[in-house]
Specification:
- The complex is a heterodimer of chains A (388) and B (144).
- Chain A has 388 residues and is an alpha/beta fold.
- Helix content of chain A is 37%, strand content 18%.
- Chain B folds into two domains: 12-67, no CATH class; 69-144, OB fold (Dihydrolipoamide Acetyltransferase, E2P).
- Classes of the chains: A alpha/beta (388), B mainly beta (144).
- Chain A binds chain B through residues 122-123, 125-126, 128-130, 134-143, 145-146, 149-150, 153-154, 157, 198-204, 248-251, 255, and chain B through 8, 10, 12-14, 48-49, 74-88, 90, 93, 95, 97, 105-110, 116, 121, 138.
- Bound molecules: zinc ion.
- Residues 40, 42-43, 45, 54, 56-57, 59 of chain B line the site of zinc ion.
């Protein structure tokens, strides 16, 4: 197995974009290739495209060759699209990892492209509800906000997690996204703003939710021996793991303890030979405020049930014990499904290179990214090391 | 300009007749007021939703068993904004997960006639069977 490196990446502006799916892909391609100037497009032998719902939200099936043409590559080893809902981008990275590690691919372009804002928002909500078991959960009005509302109210009930503690996650992540140029929300909010924002699915409010976001991004992955051709600061993938348990909401092992998350964190860190506190920072999947609270717990940063206390005591802030979501998370930067993991990875690249603003700079040698997908039934984790 | 008005394939409710599904009996039972699921004849596992192949032992020998039509409320929410197409006019509506006692399992469904504030952990709930305009059936929870 060859060691796999990420040598650069770039993103489009995230948000409600006056641009089509294909135009977002073009913008992302430009951003990637400008970040890796030594790369000749002809040397890209593989394209892995994370795209969760192009079929429904951009009415476009078979998007991989479409994106290849938009960005100007002609893959001759692997071309594929990965779909894993909110973790589609990390699924593409995982597929690229396997292909490079095995020697099949040498230079892979890994992209995430998602267009979610359409003239009819109810259609987007419908597509999101179909991420659940459509016939047995979606039919009952289940989609992401009601699911995480059930999780949140149970967590508050079982562990005494407070409305204020949950709100602090949103405040923190918007504080960081305010200085992130690609973020959907470059605006700070107060705890009162969060607690008084519009009710979406009780007890979840608007500022407990990540956005409905158009956005795209890409990274270039290659083997360790080729990495130095493109950068002085390669980012190595040292650990990766995934775990799935169940699908139907009624059958999940628990709403508030995410066993597949525990397993994925543990396995990815074990592969890297590291502990969670060896990480300089972690980018976790805060699709809703409660998801970040549970990530503190089941990601091994604190004891079960103490996620609320963990943020209240200042731990997940820049300068704290383990900074979490230094780029502003999904809450602050938006959540263009397939591009979300790519944005987290670009944050790792920029942190390691020292390219982020002072107020959220952490740097360090090690970092972790995490995505959950669907009803938190799949968890995907990557552990990175700074090279060079 | 010609008018463009295309429907999407956006109907959440499962197709229920023998032509479309092998678990049509669930729906005919529901029409008769019975809430049922499949139990594996080979390993004895009770399966939810009803299945045609047992995920535990791969047997395809199933029997239909009656489920209790009451239970205790485990978790609940009320959807205010963001309901999908076909349910927009229903919002606000509530959703709950109910614990059944025997067999021990959880069943998620819409909760009728109750706002979030009307609901409590452990509240006694009972099943309500609804009929759609086109004759299809489904189930919801209501307070007992
Ligand atoms: Zn069986």
């Amino acid at each position: 197995m060859r060691k796999v490196a990420i040598v650069g990446g770039g993103l489009t502006k995230f948000g409600v974009r006056k641009a089509t799916y294909k135009e977002l892909a073009q913008e992302a391609g430009k951003a990637v290739f400008e970040d890796v100037p030594n790369l000749d497009k002809k040397d890209v032998d593989s394209l892995f495209l994370g795209s969760a719902a192009s079929d429904r939200m951009a009415f476009q099936s078979y998007p991989a060759p479409l994106v290849a043409e938009q960005v100007g590559v002609q893959p001759n080893k692997v071309i594929m699209r990965t779909e894993l809902a909110c973790a589609s981008g990390q699924a593409a990275m995982r597929a690229a990892y396997g292909s490079i590690a095995s020697g099949l691919s040498d230079i892979a372009l890994v992209m995430g492209v998602e267009k979610m804002n359409t003239p009819n928002m109810a259609e987007t909500q419908t597509t999101m509800a179909a991420v659940m078991d459509r016939e047995w959960d979606g039919v009952n009005g289940m989609s992401a906000p009601p699911f995480f509302a059930l999780v949140m109210m149970r967590h508050m009930h079982e562990y005494g997690t407070t409305r204020e503690q949950l709100g602090m996650v949103s405040v923190k992540n918007h504080d960081y996204s305010a200085s992130n140029p690609f973020a959907q929300f470059q605006k700070k909010f107060t705890l009162e703003d969060v607690i008084n924002s519009v009710e979406i699915s009780k007890p979840i409010r608007l500022l407990d939710c990540s956005g409905i976001t158009d956005g795209a991004g890409g990274i270039v992955m290659t083997s360790e021996d080729r990495a130095k051709e493109f950068t002085d600061t390669p980012v190595y993938i040292e650990g990766l793991a995934q775990c799935n348990m169940g699908s139907l909401v009624s059958n999940l092992p628990s709403l508030t303890t995410w066993k597949p998350m525990k397993k994925a964190f543990r396995a990815a860190l074990m592969m890297a030979g590291k502990d969670i506190y060896d990480m300089a920072f972690a980018e976790v999947h805060d699709c809703f405020t409660i998801a970040e609270i549970i990530a503190y717990e089941d990601g091994g940063m604190c004891k079960k049930g103490e996620g609320g206390k963990f943020i209240e005591e200042g731990n997940p802030y820049v300068g704290g014990r383990l900074p979490v979501n230094t780029h502003g998370g999904l809450l602050g930067t938006g959540h263009p499904l397939g591009a979300t993991s790519i944005a987290q990875t670009v944050e790792v690249i920029e942190q390691f290179r020292g390219e982020v603003p002072e107020e959220r700079y952490v740097g360090g040698e090690w970092a972790l990214t995490h995505n959950l997908s669907g009803n938190a039934n799949v968890h995907s984790v990557l552990v990175f090391r700074r090279g060079g | 300009m010609p008018k463009i008005d295309l429907p999407y394939l956006l109907d959440f409710c499962p197709l229920q007749t023998e032509d479309f599904t092998r678990i049509h009996e669930f729906f005919t039972n529901l029409k008769e007021g019975k809430f049922t699921t499949t139990k594996c004849k080979s390993c004895g596992e009770i399966l939810w939703q009803p299945r045609v192949v047992c995920p535990h032992c791969n047997s395809d020998e199933m029997e239909w068993i009656d489920l209790p039509q009451e239970g205790k409320l485990f978790a609940f929410t009320e959807v205010i904004h963001g309901a999908p197409l076909g349910m927009e006019d229903d919002a606000p509506f509530s959703i709950g997960i109910v614990d059944l006692e025997d067999p021990k399992m959880k069943v998620l469904a819409r909760v009728d006639d109750a706002h979030y504030e009307d609901l409590e952990f452990g509240q006694e709930m009972r099943l309500k069977i609804i009929t759609l305009e086109d004759g299809r059936v489904w189930f919801r929870w209501v307070r007992k």
